[in-house]
Design goal:
Length: 887
């Protein structure tokens, strides 16, 4: 699965396991009846898979496009004993018939699972058949239904990870009960039905058609899927495997199928070769689906993608195309690593995700189409560093007691720290040895399940060394280390040199051993040039590097050149000062990216005041020649802008710095107008930061066509971004623009943009109404809309409005946490916990942490994070205020 598609829609997921870091639950049957909850514990799952095997599903669906569907699930399986009842998962269905081994049974059903009495079962082969009706879901899990308001067409798609297959069919919904799935579906005549195998028959029944799909290879329930609707289809049969692409009819003009097929075709060739195992399925389908709550999902041979981020009303930018390629490759890697070989239980999810992320980088690097996949990997590691230095960090490998906790740790540690450790491991044992170990692992566990020990065991065998100690240090111990260089010079030469290691967070003091490259740089003829590079394995708190003694005294030392290591570099004072003045004089883009990052770290760690940070960024951003780095630099401007907004909005210094930012960014846009990618990045930033009357007026003119942006196209997405920004500042007349624009654009993304622009207005009454809607867990609004509303309610700069409901939001947190489902709560806790960057707000959060001890793990983690971020914001503010006072 891919979490998010672009920064504007980043999903913040996560939870604190707190006391759950205790010993893992051991898989054994206690003989006790399964707990009556919507979730499945690891213990119950293990007890079931110990008894059940050889599972085969025969599924039949009747799909009409109406809000409910009817279906029959037949499950054939072997059972080793009849000592206890057996449960079958089926969520919220109206059961019309249940037969067990041919005998009609009155269902014992709690809306979560059916319990079949031991007396109705037999040792050996059993058959359970359930006929039922169920509502389609609207929260993006199960069998989601969507009505396209532009043309009335209905689209369905399934999403099951982690455990929502039983929202569509009766199942043993756990990853280690792999099964075959034979499917028939009756659907309206003009619909496609898409699943894991190619259909073998389409029968014309007049107004409907009946589709037949032969049994799949063995898959975990969460990797099976079915999507249906009058999708537009593109097809490419030029490669080794047939490829198809689907999207809603009304979105078809925004899809670039040639890019999709090129990335997909090349990827399949690459992975066939890399894994040394042919692609395990018969065709490769990719489906763009509406209201998808993640970025993408690796359903076997029928991958789903969010529409947003992978479609565009104008030609995609290079960054968007790179994101598309990387996501396609990530999901493709899962077809082997995830679908062909699957984790036994959800504690193995990180390896799944890390591996797919890492393979996407390797495949991108090999394709040569984008010149900086390793730079992208470095950028994505930053999220892992931030998460790993937080109080809420966790080991990469953690116990997951229940399916309720499966996504508690879906975060930057799971995806990006994990991917970094795999990169380390590959450096450690060698590229070819790593590949061979992966191949052996996949061959050995094909169509089955495996654990981390199996993976480490395969790599240990391939490399001839015991990798368990490495795994213990990196995978089972949480927390980030900091690394800095400490040196002295005499007569222009290094006289001492040490690498100093420390824990980024005192609560997690583990120090580690790691191979890094230390680079020494000197200013020469206006450039900062590399004068020395050495590979060093550091260990413990201090590592002396005698081989550097006598080298020219450096102006800058970077102790992780080439980004081999997973460690936060803290520049020594001299290097930090050099970085600030020489940033644009560095030729290597990766090192430049690292120094841009050092500036941001400097702001967050209070080595650099906000004003200084903004000034340095504004001087260097226009000189940035690399497109990816320009986006990073513009991101830094956005970071500076958002802090200013939070605690200095409207002040004289805010007005002065804002004007500077607006001028620099607008000038950058005009300077780069001939380069579409760069110009778009400047324009997007300009819209995001605009706050002065002049800049907001210019946005209005761009919208009405009275002004132009150096010839850069103002496409539909850009029009909405402008309207949102005008409404954020309640520019007179901007509310009327929302309705006008909806008349032009009634698409799904248009409706979400209109909602966002409406909710973001600083209008106390409207905000309270939407807050009420969100908090009442109102089912009449699809989750996709509630999520957008949550994101727009209390943006930076509207702290006073946020304060009006802050106490209420904290007071009701526990209650909502208890009532809401996990999907809702991940968004709610990430967006709705109030933090307003004042000592009083920090204090209020601290009290809420003490008072709310029974929150779900995910919500508690969000609360702790909100507090930690608020503490940091207050500290940055204090430095800023001090600077202003000294003026
Ligand atoms: Zn994934």
């Amino acid at each position: 699965m891919y979490l998010s598609v672009c920064s504007r829609f980043t999903i913040l997921l996560g939870a604190l396991l707190s006391a759950a870091f205790a010993a893992p639950l051991h898989a054994q049957s206690t003989g006790a009846a399964r707990a009556e909850t919507p979730y499945l514990s690891q213990e119950d799952a293990a007890a079931r898979s110990a008894r059940v095997s050889n599972v085969a599903y025969t599924l039949d669906f009747t799909l009409t496009g109406e809000p409910t569907f009817t279906a029959t699930s037949r499950i054939d399986f072997d059972l080793i004993d009849t000592a206890a009842p057996l449960t079958v998962d089926l969520n919220n269905a109206k059961i019309s018939a249940l037969t067990v081994n041919g005998k009609a049974i009155t269902p014992v059903y709690n809306q979560w699972f059916i319990t079949i009495a031991a007396s109705d079962l037999r040792v050996g082969r059993n058959t359970v058949s359930v006929s039922y009706g169920r509502e389609h879901s609207t929260n993006g899990e199960g069998l989601h239904r969507y009505v396209d308001k532009t043309d009335g067409r209905v689209y369905l798609y399934s999403h099951f990870e982690p455990a929502a297959a039983h929202q569509m069919f009766a199942a043993f919904d756990q990853p280690d009960l792999k099964a075959t799935y034979a499917l028939t579906a009756t659907a309206p005549k003009e619909w496609f039905v898409i699943s894991s195998t190619p259909e073998t028959r389409i029968e014309d029944l007049g107004t409907t058609r009946r589709w037949t799909f032969p049994a799949t290879p063995k898959l975990s329930p969460y990797n099976f899927s079915m999507h249906a609707g009058p999708y537009k289809m593109w097809e490419d049969r030029s490669g080794k495997y047939p490829m198809r692409l689907f999207a809603r009819q009304s979105l078809a003009s925004q899809v670039a199928p040639q890019d999709w097929f090129r990335f997909t075709g090349r990827g399949l060739e690459y992975f066939d070769d890399y894994f040394g195992i042919p692609y395990p399925f018969k065709k490769y389908d990719q489906v763009l689906v509406p209201q998808f709550i993640y970025g993408a999902m690796e359903n076997a041979a029928a991958v789903t993608f969010a529409e947003n981020g992978f479609t565009s009303p104008s030609a995609m930018t290079t960054a968007q195309r790179q994101g598309l390629a990387s996501t396609i490759l990530h999901e493709m890697a899962h077809q082997w690593f995830g679908d062909l070989v699957t984790m036994r239980w959800w504690n193995g999810l990180w390896l799944n995700e890390s591996f797919a992320s890492y393979m996407a980088t390797l495949a991108s690097a090999q394709s040569g189409e984008f010149d900086n996949p390793w730079l992208s990997q470095y950028r994505s590691k930053q999220g892992a560093y931030r998460t790993d230095e937080s109080i809420t960090t966790h080991p990469i490998e953690v116990p997951v007691p229940s399916s309720a906790n499966a996504f508690d740790n879906i975060d930057a540690i799971t995806y990006n720290k994990g991917a970094s450790t795999l990169h380390q491991l590959r450096q450690l044992i060698g590229e070819e040895t790593f590949r061979r170990g992966v191949h052996e692992y996949l061959v050995r566990h094909s169509y089955g399940n495996a654990t981390l020990d199996d993976f480490i065991g395969a790599l240990s065998k391939a490399s001839g060394r015991d990798l368990q100690p490495w795994a213990q240090e990196w995978l089972y111990q949480p927390g980030l280390n900091k690394l800095s260089a400490e040196f002295q010079c005499r007569d222009g030469k290094l006289s001492t040199f040490h690498l100093q290691q420390s824990a980024a967070n005192a609560a997690y003091p583990t120090l580690r051993s790691q191979l890094v490259q230390v680079g020494l740089f000197n200013v020469s003829k206006g450039k900062l040039v590399l004068t020395e590079k050495q590979a060093v394995t550091y260990t413990g708190a201090s590592t002396e590097v005698p081989t550097l003694i006598g080298k020219a005294c450096p102006d800058l030392v970077y102790p992780n050149v080439g980004d081999w290591g997973f460690v936060k570099v803290v520049l020594d004072a001299k290097s930090f000062s050099t970085a600030r003045t020489q940033l644009s004089q560095i030729e290597d883009p990766l090192l430049r990216s690292m120094l841009w990052q050092s500036l941001t770290d400097g702001l967050l760690d209070r080595r650099l005041g906000l004003e200084n940070y903004i000034e340095t960024t504004l001087v260097n951003a226009p000189k940035e020649t690399d497109y990816t780095l320009l986006r990073q630099a513009l991101g830094n401007i956005g970071t500076g802008r958002s802090y200013l907004r939070r605690f200095a909005a409207g002040s004289a210094v805010d007005r002065q710095l804002s004007a500077k930012m607006e001028t620099t960014v607008w000038t950058g846009l005009l300077t780069d107008k001939a380069n579409r990618d760069r110009a778009r990045s400047w324009l997007d930033t300009y819209i995001d930061i605009a706050s002065s009357d002049a800049a907001l007026a210019r946005l209005g003119h761009l919208l009405s066509g009275k002004a132009d942006a150096g010839g850069v196209e103002i496409d539909q997405d850009t029009r909405w971004a402008i309207i949102k920004q005008l409404n954020r500042h309640a520019v007179p007349g901007s509310d009327a623009l929302i309705k006008q624009e909806q008349a032009r654009d009634n698409s799904e993304s248009g409706q979400l943009s209109a909602l966002s622009a409406t909710v973001i207005r600083p209008d106390a009454k409207a905000k309270m109404a939407w807050l009420g809607k969100v908090q009442s867990l109102d089912n009449s609004e699809p989750f996709a809309r509630l999520r957008v509303a949550m994101g727009a309610l209390y943006p930076g700069g509207q702290e006073a409005l946020s304060e009006t409901s802050a106490d209420q939001r904290l007071a009701s947190l526990a209650d909502i946490d208890q009532k809401a489902d996990r999907v809702f709560m991940r968004s709610y806790a990430g967006r709705m916990i109030p933090s307003t960057c004042t000592p009083a707000s920090v204090d209020r959060l601290a009290k809420a942490i003490s008072a709310n001890t029974n929150l779900s793990a995910g919500t508690r983690r969000s609360l702790l994070l909100a507090h930690e971020n608020d503490v940091r914001c207050v500290a940055i503010r204090a430095v800023f205020d001090q600077v202003q006072a000294n003026k």
